Amino acid sequence: MKTTSRYLLTKILQILKWLGFVAIYLISSSIFQLTTFYLNDPVKSQYVLGIGLIATAIALSIVGWRYYRQLDTANPRGFSHKSMTANKLWFMLALFIGMMIFQYGWAWLISSGIINMPENQTAVAEQSLKMPIWNGIYSILLAPIFEELIFRGIYMNYFFNKDNRLNNILAMVTSALIFGFAHEMQFDLNWIMYSILGLFLSYSYIHYRDIRFNIGLHMLNNLASFL
């Protein structure tokens, strides 16, 4: 009984901690986005942008520290910095092409009226028009780092830390579904589409055992979408 209670308490604390890292990411990105409300006042906009950049740097430091601290404590899958090889590069390119083909199909469904434009994409497009350079930097460089550390790294190490087939599959699928919900907060076809993209990324994490490959793949995907 005590063992069960201790296990449940541990999981509840891990859920709260993980949600805390999500909140840190959302708060820092929200401060960054507040700059768009002050574009007519250069002084205020630069002031808010500066605060947003500082908040983002602090948030990224906290999230990154927690991820690598986890690996120091328990790392049965052997996640670490692996060297790049030709085979790894080609496989990463294949994953990227697969993501692009999938997204072209998704775009066709939207243009055909079968699926509505995701609200997340509409918001990103509006932000890009107001702050193209800074929004590009955030979307292409910063957001992938945050999201891979939180939705792949910290999440999988908290809840699916055993290196076996069942845990790896559950880690990939649930990570992908939560990633989808973070981008489309309703259970519709766009949520499924975002979840499939998340599955590409979660598979990459389990396959490479190196978060940097995920971040690079995510950056390439966002760059292609931004262009």
TrEMBL record:
GO-annotated molecular function: endopeptidase activity
Gene Ontology biological process terms in this record: CAAX-box protein maturation; proteolysis
Domain of life from the UniProt record: Bacteria
InterPro entries, per the entry: CAAX_protease (IPR052710), Rce1/LyrA-like_dom (IPR003675)
Signal peptide coordinates: none
Protein keywords: Hydrolase, Membrane, Protease, Transmembrane, Transmembrane helix
Pfam family, one: Rce1-like
Domain CAAX prenyl protease 2/Lysostaphin resistance protein A-like: 132-223
Residue spans crossing the bilayer: 12-35, 47-68, 89-111, 131-154, 166-183, 189-206
Family: Belongs to the UPF0177 family.
Identification of the protein by name: Predicted metal-dependent membrane protease
Source species taxonomy: Bacteria, Bacillati, Bacillota, Bacilli, Lactobacillales
